[in-house]
User: Fold this.
Amino acid sequence: MPIIQIDGQEHEVDTGQNILQACLSLGLDLPYFCWHPSMGSVGACRQCAVVQYQHAEDEHGRIVMACMTPVTEGALFSLTGDKAQRFREGIVEALMLNHPHDCPVCAEGGECHLQDMTVMVGHRDRKYRGKKNTHHNQYLGPLIHHEMNRCITCYRCTRYYNDYAGGTDLAAMAAHDHIYFGRHEEGVLESEFAGNLVEVCPTGVFTDKPLVHEYTRKWDLQSAPSICTSCAVGCNTSPGERYGKLKRIHNRFNADVNGYFLCDRGRFGANFVNSVNNLNYPGSRTEDGRFNALDQQQALLKMAEACDTNNIAGIGSPRASVEANYLLRTLVGADNFAPGFSDVEQPLVELALTIQQSSSAMIADIKNIESADAILILGEDVTNTAPRIALALRQSVRNKAYELAADLGLESWQDSAIRTLAQNQRSPLFIATVGDSRLDDVAEERFNLAPDDIARLGFAVAANIAGEANLGSDDELQQKAKNIAKALKNAKRPLIISGTSCGNSALMESAAQVTQALCNADKQPLPLLSMIVAEANSLGQAMLISDNAVSLSDLTARACAGALETLVVLENDLYRRGKEKDINELLENITNVIVIDGLDNRTLSASSLALPAANFAESEGTLVSMEGRAQRHYPVYLPNAQRRASWHWLLACLKQMGRDEVTEIECFDDITQACATQNSSLSGITTAAPNHQFRNIGVKIPRQTHRYSGRTAMRADISVHEPKQPVDKETPLAFSMEGLNRSQPGSLLPFVWAPGWNSNQSLHKFQSEVGGQLKLKGGTAGTRLLQATDNSNNIALFESPAAFKALKGQWQMVPRHKIYGSDELSVHSPAIAKLVRPAFVEINASDAKKLGVNDGDGVDLNDNKGDKLTTLEVSINDSIATGCVGYSVGFIATENLLAGESLVLSKAENWSPSESQQAVSSGVSDV
Amino acid sequence: MSLDRPLTRNVRADKSPTYFTAYEANGGYLGLRAALGKLSPDECLKIITDSNLRGRGGAGFSTGMKWSFVPKKGDSTGHRYLICNADEMEPGTFKDRLLMECDSHQLIEGMILSAYTIQADVAYIFIRAEYPYATKILREAIAESYANGYLGNDILGSGFNLKLYVHVSAGRYICGEETALISALEGKRANPRAKPPFPQVSGLWGRPTIVNNVETLCNIPHIIERGADWFKSLGITEDAGTKLYGVSGRVKNPGCWELPMGTSIREILEQHAGGMEDGYQFRGLLPGGASTDFLVEEHLDLAMDYETIAKAGSRMGTGTMIILDDKTCPVGFVKNLVAFFARESCGFCTPCRDGLPWSTQVLNELELGRGRKEDMATLAHHVSFIGDMGNTHCALAPGAMEPLGSAIKYFREDFESHITNGCCSYAVQESEVIT
Assistant:
């Protein structure tokens, strides 16, 4: 490792770094704007200037940009010398010429990198006497607020949005000091990752629009380490609360999961926790069908009474914590516990787990995914099913560029040079999905096929890699498979992605087969496998249940047979899990339907006893992500009204009943411990984060910043006496400003802040460089429960399915997931709701012609018996295979449709889109 | 055939274009015939290196050395590019226009030979949009060259292929910077690129690329045909060859002449440009376009070559001088230039993007009589902050500060009198005032 000298002091630094990285890693304060750890260097802002001396006798030295200067053995620099300091001050002075100095009304104020850097360089007095340039601001949609006058032209936004995230509708326009960052015309930003602009922009040009409307300064936010619940990726987040409301979500760095970025569903979708449809009080249904509010104790007694029977069953939830599901399973007994998946999904999630548990491949986290240099996606429309993975894949295809750069001796941070060199040369990405996807622009090839045909392609690739004889005589398929196999075999780190979203087990099996074929070729490092599941704890749920767990239809059968008296439903809207008539049948045949949930839904309305569940921001829980990473979320604030964590209700009920299983359980950590002890797959969950006894150098970790203000004032309308802050007995965190937010384990970082660094750029103070990768000093959050196992002999060999044949007069339903709309909870966030388009069916033009329908027409979907299931708007999409119909999954209008079923379609006469299917208008009104 | 004026030997008094037949009749394409199939690319490169030809676009970098950085072709496939920088946007410069309008085949021949030397298979002429006449003539000449087998596949049976395109710039001064030119040619914002890597290694579309000025390329056929020693013998001083010198300003005979490299400023100014107009006195000159430092009376006997002018604290640049007379306000003169550079900044890096408009604003205040004492310190700060090499992403901003820094040095009393008198004592043109 080279030794460099900075201001006379010798430092050992990492090879391959630039001087800016080296200085920040050493804890030195060197201002910068345009450099970003994920996006590298371009040398635009000139803020990180230092003086480099040619040799010890060189008295003058010359200004160099630290971000553009590689570390070299013996190099001499000055950070603090006059020349460097004067220049850096000059840069801020120049940047501020046109800045409006509107900090008091700017949403960035208090966490503004420009403010920090201005103070850091010591610029104070303004010498410029000219007028300021001003710009028009644009409407960019419901998520992002635009205020161009604040721009300091660092180019981070377009470099992130276009170069990193693959967006096409944000650009640097005009020239000289009139540069404008915006869209060619006003409109909603198209990228699903636009929200990161809020954190990427070093000042207040792009800010969080929902936050702007309900504003709180960073220093007044209360935060806790949290996990995003809007898909199974498990991105780490830092939610901020004030006045009992979630104000915003910021990224929480996790080197292996989300790095620096979130998707917009995760960032803006979490606002469902503020919904007016929240259930705040327990209630029991009266005979006239209305609900009577109960207090907590009354509700508990009712619950305990109803549960005191052998004819009981429980339905858990893949969106509830491991702990809550474990307690429900304890309450009702393992044989009476359904995990809460649909009948179609349950075996698929179990398959996803089995494949990953038995695979010899490395189960990929996002950092691994970004290292892949050849990728095959079988079935998943990743941008819509696990969005953050799509952003990672955009980086994987750049490995070809890094390879070319290494040949030229370019360091990986030389961003623009590498892009210039590689141009459109990419590592191969093959996408086999039921329709077009948002990654098609970076794909080497895409194949839009029926799910069974995707599986056949997968099996053909596997056979090809294994060098086996051709299956069947489908020459075209074999040729495609040959190309893919060749690319995967030639790659250093091939990656196979599949998952449950198509509702098809064969394509998942084919993915397992391809991966195993690669593993059998003795590849090192190990090939990568990623299995996408749907929800935040889908995989944890599969780990919790035994092989032949009861399903929803099993319970319906029991209920219809009169064998069920009480059903406890945990955080689950069953109408999203099965056909309406089946769910009605289940619920109508049970006397006591107890539902624990946070937001009103149809299942809750059908209950006899409703218990208000605290949401992710109000409770602690462990979730197991798609890669098998157990991660803990913590209450950001205490639950409002009478809401309590689901585990709390269940534990109290078990205690009330005097059940033996819980005599030893006194707190949340005890549940985690009990679950881990009884379930070997989940034995690692206790190490997902430290337990409640952890103290950081003797003290707790504060949820509030040092500058948290107005604790008395904020409730002065009630009383001017400030109440004692609540005591958190369950976690190592405190509802207080007191404690130490430094040097703690990575899983316990509520927010980032460091002296002089008020913005999220302070993160580097919490990071260290380990083996060329930035990690949190306190270690990466979470525990991986899945490891690559060398048991290739145990792998089941799967069979390729028969080719898909369109049935005359019938169409196969293939799911089309939508980042905005398919997820249950995020659509309750007002900003996300504005982005949800109406429910739809997609068919190709020739099928549409057969049906006699055009874009915008309605089509009736009927089952074989001729019963109409729903009517939907037609969207012509030629990427959908003939004989298949894509339908928007997870929308109210499509709840009655099942993946893979064959339906009869006919044109709906005199149809017009109903109110419920219309998108909420997103006009300029929400500026 | 005039051996001492090789570049302009085909330039007629009426400036009419030289087409194929006339060009060939006058000894054109002999250099090409002498090289293709007879000399290896390496042999051509050696001749150019030995000739001590330096880039005529302004920087004066050794052409042979520049070419030598292109990786050897070896077995590598893929395109390699030659680009002719015909984006002649330097204020006061009009020498390349003369060469393109009057003898376009000379440029084409030079490009074929250069492309052959670096083994490029595609070449572009990147020409400024304000040269529609030159564009038309170039396109006609290129068509003639294709028709006569000098362009296209298997040129003169040598097996060497070359496609040549004319690309008309969408505008902007910065396109004259070679990496910005490449960005523009790729259809991107005309922002300069960070170096390394240099275009020779990773240029247009990430492939090895050479960018040369029109005048540089026009020298190639003559050097290949007559040899390095002949070329060196043309110059008066160390720097070899001839140079197109130009003069604009209040002189009797403004124009452009091909003269031996190293001709003295005084000879160019007094003999060729005819001296100052009656009633005007010489005060100073920018030797090679707007982005060079002022020289004054004491420098008039210096030789116009790269080394001599550099030693005097300026740059020969394009070799086309702009003369400052005694009736033109140096502050207004400089303000006009700095305003030009501020407007032409690509906006990529801070000192240039925000510093130049600030300098312009201060100079404008001075011109309007609103200058303050501290403005001199501000300007001095800008000269170093914006102008020091390494402070900015490319050389535009340092170039922009050269006239300002040198004007403060040589005409300081003019700046100060604007402040003390609260007005400009020269006749200010209404159109020059920025309000």
User: Anything to note?
Assistant: Residues 240 and 415 of chain B are 39 Å apart (CA to CA). The mean pLDDT of chain B is 95. The first strand of chain B starts at residue 81 and ends at 86. The domain at 242-325 of chain B is CATH 3.10.20.600 (Ubiquitin-like (UB roll)).
